Amino acid sequence: MASLELLGFGSTGWGALLIAAALMTLAVTATALAIGAVLGATVAAAKLSGNLVLVTLGNVYTTVFRGVPELLIIYLIYFGGSSAVTSIGQAMGYEGFLGLPSFIAGALAVGIISGSYQAEVFRGAFLAISKGELEAASAIGMHRGLRFRRIIMPQVLRLAIPGLGNVWQLSLKDSALVSVTGLAELMRTSQVAAGSTRQYFLFFIAGGCLYLILTSLSDRIFNGAERRANRSMPASAMGQA
Question: What is one term from the GO cellular component aspect held by the record (predicted)?
Answer without folding.
Answer: ATP-binding cassette (ABC) transporter complex
